Amino acid sequence: MRTAFGQQFDVPDGYLNTASIGTPSMAVAEAVERAVREWRTGAGHAEEFDEPVALARRGFAELVGVEADRVAIGAAVSPLIGMVAASVPDGSRVLVAAGEFTSVSFPFAAQAGRGVTVTEAPLDEIGARAADFDVVAVSVVQSADGRIADLEALRCARASGTRVVLDVTQAAGWMPLELGWADAVAGAAYKWLLSPRGAAWMAVHPELELVPHAAGWYAGADPWSSVYGLPLRLAADARSLDTSPVWFGHVGAAVALPWLAGLDLEAVRSHCVGLADSFRAAMGLEPAGSAIVTVQRRGALGRLAEAGLVVAGRAGGARLSFHLYNTDADVTAALDALR
């Protein structure tokens, strides 16, 4: 058992795979276990999940720097970004990072039948080229190797008229974020936000008009009175984009996200990046300011696995991710395995 930032985690030594699956705190796991037990015994009631949904929504809003009424819920990032992709005008030009996670790029590429074109560019060129495109869609932190997008350059591009769509799945939870200026900011629960899979959110700028293609009962102004019949009566804010919540995902997120949002995220970043950059330095790599490190060394993935460490194979290398429950001992174990 480990204690980190006031919470307990039943995370094993050498777990360096948060970028794939985050490990919940005991408080999160216990909340989900209670909800499952109530479901199993017939004691659960659908209306009782509204509060966890609202708490998690507010937590995500705080983590990305917006008001909660700008946040829509979903089950995964790609359907949320898909609403944005479906809303761009015919013939729009979209810029994405080369090797971008496909939940960001595929929704736009799927619009090719409307003349939408998607161009890939190296991540370090995205900011400079953004003004030449109608939309830029990029992860704040790249899944494959942890590189960080130039948010200030993207903010400037947005001011000049380019729509900016961001995925914070590999950033929110360890990186302080103030992204109220972006057109859309989407993120999933089950990595750095330490919640069950099945919950995702998207903050939408008031100037971005979206059609709620998947509108259902939970998108209603009063969800419990919009379960039958017409006319259309959607919420007046971003809830009009909601899809029906995956209950247990939000039960966990309702504990995890408000807790994360209440932490000193500069201290969290310092901890996570400090471990990652310490590992990088010992490997002869320059500091990168990211909590994710990918080692491009032959046999690295196998050696880490043989030593009992949990990492991921990404982009032809071994990806290590350092979150708030990791320690110097995890760094040492990884280095010992690779030496």
TrEMBL record:
Keywords: Aminotransferase, Transferase. One of its GO terms (molecular function) is transaminase activity. InterPro entries: Aminotrans_V_dom, PyrdxlP-dep_Trfase, PyrdxlP-dep_Trfase_major, PyrdxlP-dep_Trfase_small. It comes from the Bacteria. Pfam families: Aminotran_5 (PF00266). Residues 46-279 form the Aminotransferase class V domain. This is Aminotransferase class V. It comes from Pseudonocardia asaccharolytica DSM 44247 = NBRC 16224. The lineage of its organism: Bacteria, Bacillati, Actinomycetota, Actinomycetes, Pseudonocardiales.
